[in-house]
Amino acid sequence: MGTMPDLELAQRLKARATTLRRHIVTMASGGQVIHLGGSMSCADVMAALFFHFLEVEGGERPKDHFILSKGHTVHAFHACLAELGKIEEAEFRTLAQTGTRLAGHPSLKAPLVEFATGSLGHGLSLGIGIALAERLDGLDSKTVVLMGDGELQEGSVWEAALSASNFGLTNLLAIVDRNEFQGSGAVADVQPLDPLEDKWRSFGWNTVVVDGHDMGAILEGLGRFPAKRGPTVMIAETIKGKGVPSVQGSPRAHYVSLSDEQVAEALAVLEVE
Amino acid sequence: MLGFAYAFSQGGLLTEMAEANPDLVVVTQDLGPLSPFAERFPQRYFDVGISEANLIGVAAGLAHAGKLPFVVAMAPFVSMRSFEQIRNSCGYNGCNVKIIAPCSGLEGGHWGATHHAVEDLGLLRMIPGMTVLCPGDPAEAARAVAAAAAIDGPVYIRFGYVQPIEGYGEEFQVGRAVLLREGSDVVLIATGASVTQAIAAHDLLKQAGVSARVLNMHTIKPIDREAIEAAATEVGRVVTVEEHFVNGGLGGAVAEIMAELGSGRLVRLGLQDEFVMEIAAYPDILELVGLDPGSIAAAARSLLG
Fold first, then answer.
1. What CATH number did the domain enclosing A149 receive?
2. In this complex, which of B25, B43, B60 lies closest to A126 when CB atoms are compared?
3. Considering only CA atoms, which of B3, B26, B197 is closest in space to residue B117?
4. Subunit contact B61:A133, Cβ cutoff 8 A
5. What ipTM did this prediction achieve?
6. A2 lies in a domain?
């Protein structure tokens, strides 16, 4: 049974997620086109991971490991870096500019990036390798791989899904940011995934489905990890572009630049209490 | 000796290496237990089944977390199906993964072109930071594996149908071609299983009064530019011999260097931009594609005309 979520913690993380979203909106202003939708949709999960669940700092080798397999939503990660004090907010303005550390996908030039990703369907296998090594070394650590739902159309994800359960990797957590959209439209129209939870379960995974914008639910979902046996997947049901009223929940959110009016509207919605 | 047989015999070598290095692990894909490694180190032996993309990803993750993974996987599949994983995770991210790839070149013979690895050298040598080894005899293959462990970075070792070269026990130096026969009329630069064919061609040429130098180019990347430049300038007539498409592999690499040098004539032997559609067992298939000693000797003589 899951433990009762700590309300105070949930509130604190919710506020952090809102701050992450404000940062991401800022990045999409001034004519800069970014992968906004997927960055906004995973902000709550990212807040829970980086400000509660994972220990990614310290030493040459982090205690826990995080792989952003859906690398194009790097903006949520960059927002976390600012909140962790690893980069200045002012550095957001360098995004995608020549010489920046803030590329359109995770770059090894940026802090705390374990793998420079970008091509979809690679991360879960990398996570398996790390989790195997950590288990061999007897380390009590977590390895988390964040994927998109469109990304699950990659066959390599399912090679890895078979493999992780075969290796019984209790120390591996996959998170699917299920925002229902991919580059060209709705996942349900392009290449449907349902029944998604059943697919993972039939591949030997422990599954939990949560509202990816309900921090209490996210914390409860994360609390299911590690399971007694096998890897765990948390499917976070989210809204693409969450927090930007003019595009959220639509395919327009995927890769977009926001007008001054759209930015103002979004920031008004994202007032931190 | 079959590259397969080699890959399995490496189980003994890898076990010895693993005794000395607790970080050494083996990742493989449905090739059967790589004994005695799997018996001695079951916890450090991972068979991911038939899944090449996952194979390299898992190995890269292991390397990232401090392990020294040796991947053992069929050359045609690991070099092509996992190419992007190798490029991104081993190349771009610099993961220290060693890939031992049996069934390379035309060893697959009668299995058909799906099982011919005739693009791997070209593909792998394009990746920055990759070392590409193609040993020419069984003992050299073992030395290449040992050398790979000492390299800080990803290594691809191609195992073809190599046969022992009589009296050959050269120290293995990555990036240094081995002069097997001295000669002044033509230079045969061969790699992998083609090295013994080139030596046989040398003997045929000798009988015909042609003096052929034979180089064993066991390292395709970083390639021995000095040896190639010497061949081009001192002799001026070069034949490359490889079980690979002539584009991109050894022939491609030598052509690039000779073009930059602006000196010497070159004939590239290998597959001439065509799949092998005929069905032929190894080594008969070599005659079919012009990689047998007679064809090599004829190509060399064509440069002398």
1. 3.40.50.970
2. B60
3. B3
4. yes
5. 0.96
6. no
C-alpha–C-alpha distance, residues A126 and A121, integer Å: 10
At B218-258, the pLDDT tens digits run 999 999 999 999 999 999 999 999 999 999 999 999 999 99
Class in CATH terms, B3-158: alpha beta
Query: How confident is the model at residue A1, as a pLDDT?
Result: 42
Q: What is the CATH number of domain B178-302?
A: 3.40.50.920
Pick from B43, B66, B89: CB nearest A126: B89
Phi, psi at B135, each rounded to 5°:
-65, 155
- Tell which wins on pLDDT, B30 or A130: A130
Instruction: Confirm whether A1 is domain-assigned.
Output: no
Nearest CA in chain A to B27: A129
Taking CB atoms and an 8 Å cutoff, what residues of chain B touch A121? 53
Interface membership of B98 toward A (CB under 8 Å): no
**Alpha carbon A139 to its chain's center:** 24
Selecting from A121, A132, A155 the residue whose C-beta is nearest the C-beta of B58 gives A132
- Residue B90, chain A, CB below 8 Å: the answer is no
Which amino acid is residue A202, in one-letter code? S
Comparison of pLDDT for B169 and B27, the residue scoring more: B27
Minimum distance, in Å, between the CA of residue B115 and any CA atom of chain A: 21
pLDDT digits (tens, 9 = 90+) for A85-124: 999 999 999 999 999 999 999 999 999 999 999 999 999 9
CATH code 3.40.50.920 region(s) in chain B: 178-302
Residue B154 Cα, gap to closest chain A Cα (Å): 16
Whether B89 and chain A come into contact, CB under 8 Å, resolves to: yes
Residue A273 has pLDDT above 90, yes or no: no
User: What are the respective helix, strand and coil percentages of chain B, to the nearest 5?
Assistant: 45, 20, 35
Please return the burial class of B274, using the count of CB atoms within 10 Å of its CB with bins 0-12, 13-18 and 19+: exposed
pLDDT at A60: 74
DSSP assignment of B132-164, as one string? EE--SSHHHHHHHHHHHHHSSS-EEEE--S--P
A134/B66 Cβ within 8 A: no
Indicate whether A44 belongs to any domain.
yes
Domain contains A169: yes
Number of domains in chain A: 1
Interchain contact, A65 vs B58, CB within 8 Å: no
> CB–CB of B43 and A136 under 8 A?
yes
Exposed, middle or buried by CB within 10 Å (0-12, 13-18, 19+), for B96? buried
Peptide bond into A195 cis (omega under 30): yes
Range(s) of the domain holding residue A39: 7-269
Domain with CATH 3.40.50.970 in chain B: 3-158
Cis status, amide bond into B222, omega within 30 of 0: yes
Please report, for chain B, how many H helices and E strands are present, in that order: 12, 12
What is the value of pTM for the model shown? 0.96
